[in-house]
Amino acid sequence: MLAPGDLGSSRRALLLFALMVLLPGAVFGILIVRSVRSDRVQAAEGEAQRQRQIVQVFERELNSWLFSLQADGARARAVFKFRLAEGRIHFPEFELALPIVAQAPRPPTDSLPSDHPTAQVISDFYYPRILVLLRDFKAGAQYFLRLRSLIVLLPGSSEGYAIDAPQIVARANEWLAELCAGTRFTGSLWIGDLQDRPAAAAAGPFALAGFPFFQVVFHDNGGAGARDVTQHAFAYSMSFLVLVTILGSFLVFRTVSQDVRLSQLRSDFVSAVSHEFRSPLSSMLVLLERLDAARIRDPDKLAEYHAVIRRDAQRLSALVTRLLDFAQIENGKERYALDRVDLVALAREALEACRHRAGGDRLQFSGEAGPLWILADRTALQDCIENLVENAVKYSAADQPIVVACTSVGGSQVVEVRDHGIGIPRAEQARIFEKFYRGLRATETNVQGVGIGLAIVKHVIECHGGSVSVASEPGSGSRFRLHLPKAEG
Ligand code: ADP
């Protein structure tokens, strides 16, 4: 156990320790965060670069697939083919030949039949668009959203064909899957309304230079976090270690401070108890000496001496009882015998017991006439009320009234003790129920007490399923309330 004098030096040592850990920890933490962040930025740049390369390769592949005459090229998958000859567009599969004119007829507005194209569908829907392609591009490819088709005109040739969009998407995604193998992302082709909008995690879209109607988007595969953790395992574990050390030093600091504080309170308690014993004992010894010497013959004086000795002996006895109660609570050995008790009657008894100590009409009772039934250990609860009344007496001027009142509030029966004494500063109000704690004014003005009364009260009331509250204003007085559950029936 630390002695109170160690408080300063142990705090200094702990502060030094915290500084030695905290400062390098903070520097180390900043370095780790910076290195992880720059790694991330580099990785993201590398990824974007790789995606651009993939898009270039993909574009070349698409180009050669669409415009080459290979057996597995786009031509092989065409929905239909057409040929330009003698100022007409020939559709051999449909035995259809339509003139090449400058002005494309306006395409009909009703929707495109979904089944396989017929001569009618060709002339109504595809033909006007092929004319647009011939007029605007001469050669190349053009995507028509309503047709969901790409119409391709082979460069340097008089041949063309139409490809269904889903076929293009399927083919494109095969390439993209191959090109993205081994990376942390997957690519997919995005054509207007044919694909869902890119997911939030997607990068791009990358427009294809030769085919502005197609776009490529890249989706994160996930698992980036896990890879990140493995990559930076050392950095993360070091940060964790630093954090644990900082937290540990803080906890050690707190525990030691609490220990030191408790040890200080205990030592104050021992000196307060000694003091409480010493003054009545020495007064009793002096009086007994005089009585022994048989110098006092005046019967009034004799009666007075006996009264003083009795009062001091009672005071000592009350103190010993309180210390024993406290010891039992500390050892967890206290037992309460619960009876159905009228709180009003009990409060009146407690008040009467205190009356001769407080003297005169200072103690008053107010509030309900009763009965207010509770289940309680009669002796323990009466001690609690007496304790509050004695405190009110100790901490207020001799001419100030002290009021004990009982009321019923909701499901609780309440007894309160009010005084107009010195009051309790707000900062102390939370601590006065701690064991050994004594207020500053109490110690400064040498008011009798050892700092365990309210701790006992709180313990007893909580064991009864109730609670204690305090309202106080320094200089105006205090009001302590005991809230106890109502007895059934
Ligand atoms: P003590 O033996 O010091 O009275 P208690 O546990 O009964 O110990 O009270 C703890 C502290 O609460 C006291 O030291 C005092 O500062 C404060 N206190 C208790 N009751 C009152 C009161 N009625 N008025 C002002 N201060 C009080």
Jot down its keywords.
six-stranded antiparallel sheet; 51% helix; elongated; disordered N terminus; binds adenosine-5'-diphosphate; alpha+beta; 489 residues
Please describe what this structure looks like.
The strands form four sheets. Strands 3-2-1-6-5-4 form a six-stranded antiparallel beta sheet. It has helices spanning about 5-65, 120-135, 165-180, 225-230, 235-290, 300-330, 345-360, 380-395, 425-430, 440-445, 455-465; strands at about 80-85, 90, 95-100, 140-145, 150-155, 160-165, 185-190, 205, 215-220, 340, 365, 375, 400-410, 410-420, 465-475, 475-485. It is elongated, with a radius of gyration of 48 Å. The two termini are about 50 Å apart. The protein has about 500 residues and is an alpha+beta fold. Helix 7 packs across helix 8 (about 380-395). The structure holds adenosine-5'-diphosphate. Adenosine-5'-diphosphate binds near residues 395, 438 and 478.
Instruction: Please tally the helical runs, counting DSSP H or I stretches of 4 or more residues.
Output: 11
So what's the oligomer here? single chain
Provide the succession of SSEs.
HEEEHEEEHEEEHHHEHEEHEEHHHEE
- N-to-C terminal Cα separation, in Å? 51 Å
**Order of neighbouring strands in the sheet with most strands:** 3-2-1-6-5-4
Rg: 48 Å
Outline: elongated
Low-confidence stretches: 1-6
The structural class is alpha+beta
